[in-house]
Amino acid sequence: MSLPSIYAYTDYRKFLLDWLTARQEEDARFTRSEMHRRLGLPNTRSYLPDILAGKDISATFLERFTVALELTSEEARFFRVLVRFNQATVPEERELVFDQLVSLNKTPRSILDPAHYRYYRNWWNGAVRALLAIHDIGDDPKALANLLVPAVTEGQARESLSLLAELGLIARDEAGFWKPTEHTLSSGEGARGELVRQLQVQQLQLVQKAVIRPETSGAQVVATNTISVSEEGLAQVRKRLEKFRSEVRSIVHKDPHPASRAHLVTLAIVPLTRSVKSTRASEADPAPEAGKAKA
Q: Which of 120, 205, 209, 228 is the most exposed place for a label (fewest CB within 10 A)?
């Protein structure tokens, strides 16, 4: 089993796990204890499991990892950016680092198709496509830009029209206006998952702005609920959400009336506390001996 390529990953923890598995299959003597020794932690067994479970890699250990993983200089650079991306907590930073990640990708196969990347990169591309189903827009990006909320620049609207046409997602009708086609966008699952997450971050920021500056037409509805529920109850909530999403798509598909506006619909379930199982497991862990700190 050959060692995995770092360029095929958008999650450094998944890469670490796959690399360790492949390295051990290559050499049975290469254990996690050996990896800890390479990281300068010969007496520690918990560091790697903690990292794989979600603990962040510090700047000091980041450099040790690039050596322990036997990465080339270019691979090490990509790994550093990948770690920054996965550990970013601010949407703006994550967005900036993701751009760097794409530019540094040296993979021989196209994991991130440039056109798909450009489409998911900005929220307004999907909004422009939806808007064109409502308004008759030709080569007038200024009018298009002003119809979006929040408004985008004329240049951004022009680029969006060009991209959508390139992807076959819009085409001119008999009158020369741009209209959505029935085509859908498809890309590799691994790449698409990360691209969609980037898009969702932007869309949730739109919701945040809408809550701060509510419109007066009554079209906006933002509702939130904080609940405590069992795993079984949560499974039922998830099923209802999926059913609702299906119903929304059906309503839109069967709507006999012409569309009047484009809307963003968001549904989310976000844990606000640790699970009972993880809390009990944490309480069961023995406390470290006095004077000894965990790595």
A: 228
